[in-house]
Design goal:
The chain has two domains: about 150 residues, Leucine Dehydrogenase, chain A, domain 1 (Rossmann fold, 3-Layer(aba) Sandwich); about 120 residues, NAD(P)-binding Rossmann-like Domain (Rossmann fold, 3-Layer(aba) Sandwich). Helix content is about 35%, strand content about 20%. It is built from ten helices and 14 strands. A six-stranded mixed sheet has the order 4-3-5-7-8-6. Helix 1 packs across helix 9. The structure holds NADP nicotinamide-adenine-dinucleotide phosphate. The site of NADP nicotinamide-adenine-dinucleotide phosphate (NAP) has 23 residues, from helix 5 and helix 9.
């Protein structure tokens, strides 16, 4: 395959009539890092695929999906605000998407379209890659949005003992916690005494809010470091910057940390594998993300 080099070390394949199409459906999609990561992966694996961002307004989603089918797309990633709405536009929903209640990857075949959720397994794989075990551990999740749902599902699948979710809105977090019928998830306002008590009994903390994300790197979710066990693992889903203020403080206090790059790459790698049937070149994907984040910051 002929190749040209972009400003990063990414290798972009030459597009021909045989090139297979995949992409990202979202609104907006201007800031996505996935095209660079996925196109680097296709090039590294020697596969003739191209990944394109596809900005689709919510009201145009049904039409866009039938268009993707007609255009012969192999599959797509789906991001905000379409992750739930897309479920009514596909033929089958995999267990992963059923559990999370959202689809982030669709595979198109002659037999129909199937929706998957690779965020959940991507998060779990990012912990495994760092040697972090969740079985029988007590987890603390901060934030109660879409990513938190995938994280909580991953933790429950991994055999976690309990998950305490903290968010600024008590009504939202209680509803969020009640939506899991495992009996292992509780939700509290993050300024409550119950939440502080849970901090003191946590083995793993996961920030699932955008607080501390570029360009607001001086911000951090509030965590009582005196109360948090000294051997707790602290994770942040944010990947830009790679070391948020939260992770920096955790590291300074001697705790193990896991950043969001792992989840981003692992969920993308799983989508790559669903589309192509080939093993994803994870190291090339991590490297592409590292370079991109360094360039953007
Ligand atoms: P979301 O659905 O909008 O949920 C965000 C959550 O954070 C909500 O609970 C929200 O509370 C809370 N929140 C947001 N801003 C806040 C603030 N200033 N103060 C207090 N709480 C705040 O977003 P999401 O899709 O779950 O994404 C959350 C983060 O995860 C983002 O930074 C995203 O980039 C990251 N993420 C990373 C990956 C990865 O692969 N590494 C994947 C997905 C997401 P309210 O409901 O009260 O607003």
């Amino acid at each position: 395959m002929d190749q040209v080099f972009s400003s990063c070390s990414a290798v972009i394949p030459t597009i021909s009539g045989k090139t297979k199409l995949v992409g990202l459906v979202g609104w907006p999609v201007e800031h996505t890092l996935s095209p660079l990561i996925q196109n680097t992966a296709f090039a590294a694996a020697g596969l003739d695929y191209v990944y394109v961002p596809l900005a689709v307004r919510p009201e145009d989603l049904p039409q866009a999906f039938s268009g993707l089918r007609s255009l012969g797309f192999e599959g797509v990633n789906v991001t905000v605000p379409h992750k739930v709405a897309v479920m009514s536009l596909i033929d089958a929903v995999d267990r992963s998407a059923e559990l999370v209640g959202a689809v982030n990857t669709v595979v198109f075949t002659d037999k129909g379209t199937t929706g998957y959720n690779t965020d959940m397994a991507g998060f779990s794989a990012s912990l495994e890659a760092q040697g972090v075990l969740v079985n029988e551990r007590r987890a603390l999740v901060i934030g109660a949005g879409g990513a938190a749902r995938a994280v909580v599902c991953g933790l429950l699948e991994g055999g976690v003992q309990t998950v305490v979710v903290g968010a600024r809105s008590v009504a939202k977090v209680e509803k969020f916690a009640a939506s899991f019928d495992s009996g292992r998830v509780r939700g509290y306002a993050w300024d409550s005494a119950s939440f502080t008590e849970a901090v003191g009994a946590s083995d793993i903390v996961v920030n699932c809010t955008p607080i501390g994300m570029y360009p607001h790197m001086d911000q951090s979710v509030a965590l009582d470091w005196e109360v948090l066990p000294s051997n707790a693992v602290v994770c942040d889903l944010i990947y830009n910057p790679p070391f948020t203020k939260l992770l920096t403080k955790a590291k300074e206090t001697g705790r193990k940390v896991v950043g969001g790059a792992g989840m981003l790459v692992e969920q993308g790698a799983l989508a790559f594998e669903l589309w192509t049937g080939e093993q994803a070149p994870r190291q090339a994907m991590y490297q592409a993300l590292r370079e991109l984040v360094a360039n953007r910051s």
